[in-house]
Fold this sequence. Notes:
This protein has helices at residues 28-36, 57-64, 78-87, 108-119, 306-312, 324-334, 360-377, 380-408, 415-444, 449-452; strands spanning 15-21, 44-50, 69-72, 94-99, 102-104, 127-136, 139-147, 163-169, 172-173, 184-188, 195-198, 201-208, 214-221, 226-232, 235-241, 246-252, 258-259, 262-264, 267-269, 275-277, 292-293, 302-305, 338-349. By secondary structure, it is α+β, with helices and mostly antiparallel strands. The chain has three domains: 15-134 and 262-349, Spore Coat Polysaccharide Biosynthesis Protein SpsA, Chain A, CATH 3.90.550.10; 139-259, no CATH class; 360-455. A hairpin with a 2-residue loop joins strand 8 and strand 9 (172-173). The mean pLDDT is 93.
Amino acid sequence: MSDSPPHVPSGSPYATVVVVNWNGAHLLPACLDGLAKQAAPFDFETWVVDNGSTDGSLALLAERYPAVRALPTGANLGFAGGNNVALRQVTTPYAVLLNTDAVAEPDWLANLLAPFAAEAGTGALPLGAVTGKVVFRPRFLRLRLTTTAFVPGPHDPRELGVRISSVRVNGGEVINEVLWEKLTYGAEGGPADRFFWTRPDGELCVPVPDGGPVTLSVTWTAATEQPVTIGWDGGSAELAAGPVTGPAEVVIPAGVARVDVVNNVGGIVLADGYGADRGYQQVDTDQFAEPEEVFTACGNGMAMPTALGRELDWFDDDFFLYYEDTDLSWRIRARGYAIRYQPDAVVRHIHSASSVEWSPLFVFHTDRNRLLMLTKNATPGLALANVARYPVTTASIAVRTFRQALKSRSRPAVRPTRLRLRVMRSYLRLLPTMLARRRATGRTAAIRRSDLQRWLVRR
């Protein structure tokens, strides 16, 4: 490292990279080794906040990474609280965040911070944050599944294809790593018996090793005996599925192109108040190759001026996990700052490595924190509409569940309703605090809430 930026004394760190860890000893080496390989023209520090891990993470840091500063919290403070432990101590000009389950490309940090220097003295809207390109860690085969459609009945009007309970690549199970947002209706069943109903036609991306042929084995069930076509670039195979659950196997030849898939290229908020990853599960064909302004930054791989972070007091501790970066981004923008997407600042990410998507933990915090975020930042109309809709939807789900149970003479599935009631109780408990923070944000805002909501995207 050499040639510090002109406004930083030679030898002084220009940035602090903060990594929050919770029982991630198996993830830390790849993450920290990637940071050690950064080709940055400035000095930087690496801090790891340990959220009460019990898997030997602190011993690993002491033994293998003595140059990394460890900040043990003794308890799990979540992503928001854990980051804040470090961020409130940072003294370098910039603070940078990276997940334990992410590996940065060697030029990531230099490219991530470059826009701040480029903006100096230009008179443009000041930069409040820079967010990079996050792609999924493995490379993928891009496949297409096509089969016969059926509709289960009046209580389930979906068009279904086949029910998949296992996906193996060269003998190893990868069902939780497959990207099939464009094919399935999401995970169903419990953690031990997870399955996915497909649509009759759609795309999936399967993680595979580089090079060589791939043996793909899928265990599935269908309503009737029916053919299923699996297609790839330059070929396809017709397999069979039926009412009896069983495996089907195809060998995909060597030479079929592997692709990168986008996890996040900046964030959006939809017009109905839901946050989303821009570009999520799109095959990366350089469609996001240009720097541009975005509404929100991703907490995995974002940078902020430390002075601005102090003014905003960083993340909201009460969010614990999820939507904390969207909330912070909204507050950055309310202060009159821009957020920049920088495409050449690339990290490779294992999706949901430290928390399981659609688990009760995930659903509780995404549901509650979305309502908290809107309460703090949105116009009264948007906030009230979403808050009022939540109990109505909860009641509708409960009624539908009991009706289906009566019809099938089975016990009703009450866990989803109970979880939503927990969300409502927690939201109401935090409501006075959020309204106070809303008023505080309004007093320092440079841009009106209604103007910020012009960024919101229709579905």
